[in-house]
Amino acid sequence: MREQLLAYALRYEGSWPQIAAAIRNAEPWQPVSYDGRYVTITDADYPARFRQLRYPPWVIFYAGNSDLWKQAGIAVIGARSTSAQGRECCRDITSILKEKYVIISGLAKGIDAIAHKEALDARTVAVIGCGIDVVYPRENAALYHSIKERQLIISEYPSHAKPFASHFPWRNRLIAALADAVVVIEAKERSGTMHTVNEALELSRPIYCAARSYLEKDYLGNALLLSQGAQPLWTREDVKEL
């Protein structure tokens, strides 16, 4: 089954629905070689947190230290377009959390990149929405290589798979599943950040949110989350208590 899942994952470039259909229809397959590290849902060392998902990935491709997906982690997420306050807030919150937790994020520009950079000297996991060897966005190339060499990058998409927009909602569920809690720094009302929060809520993960000024209009997602019951982070002491 392990070789079969790899063959389907390479044939369909990690597409969960297409792999599911191939399994259901018992599509013919042949053993294939893959020059990279991977784990399938049939393996004992498959990340246990992913088994909680409604659609657990069939195959996880990775580069780096796979022990990190077994450790307690917190997702630090937020907008791609950030404010100066948001960037400072992200660095400060991450600097506190990295002392106890693996920092998990999506290697996007903005808050994701800031969180990963702040945690490079500790522990961080990047969950990406493209092939494990594809650098996206290009501006994060140096960060990508640093995480790959010193930390952990994971994807359900094999080498060379392009970063199609449809991949990122699926990527978000993996961020939510790996994390023991989610911290939102800045969020727009309709955004990938809010989608990740919804995925985390499906898994009963606690949501924390940095408090923002009511005068701000760009990050109304924060106010929405707080009004719906997310736990506010008012001070550094609040962060230390996580």
TrEMBL record:
All copies of domain Smf/DprA SLOG, residue ranges:
38-239
State the superkingdom.
Bacteria
Q: What family is reported?
A: Belongs to the DprA/Smf family.
**What is the designated name of this protein?**
DNA-processing protein DprA
